[in-house]
Amino acid sequence: MSDRDRFALRREHLLPENAQRAIELFKAAGLEVSSPEARAASLAETLEGVAPDRDVWVFGYGSLMWNPALHHAELVAGRVRGWHRRFCLWNTFGRGSPERPGLMLALERGGSCAGVGLRIAAADVRHELALLWNREMLSGSYLPRWVRLSTPQGDVDAVTFVANRAHARYAGRLPAERVAQLLAHARGPLGGSREYLEQTVAELERHGVRDGEMHALLRAVRSLS
Length: 225
Description:
alpha+beta; Hypothetical upf0131 protein ytfp; five-stranded mixed barrel; two-stranded antiparallel ribbon; globular
């Protein structure tokens, strides 16, 4: 088994009984971890008003595109307007380290963002989104938001995760050259930040996005290798 396979995020890692590994990574990086009760309250607030018989869409723009680890009834290409994807969250515990910090993607206001919509069947919503909250909401660096997602079948409401600008992991708008340098060299127990970018670009291309900011960033990263 390769290191990439050994450390890849898998569905079982998101189960409550196995989330301790991620919690230990966060604590080792000096970050506070939200309690199970806080995550449950956040999820309940997000789903307030969602009927029990309603499917829920999730918008993925980074690793949720190529490694969702969620049971979903459908996956389609889509675009959200009013938000754009940016490497703006420090990562010193997964695809980076304190010595070689990396960056993770989050959504910021303005522009638009291509990605995928994952439709979670109504019967699975509570369970699957609880796993998603274990994945995205441990440290508080993301905030859940409902956005309007345009798909080939029409517009739908979807839940996604945007940058929490008040969080210690928020890096702000770094110069493009600095972002490329960080992504080119960062590595941690889950792999390299460059791999995260490469897989994001590959998935965008699979859904018809042939060139864009992520492609330009990847060219810059490769030029540094």
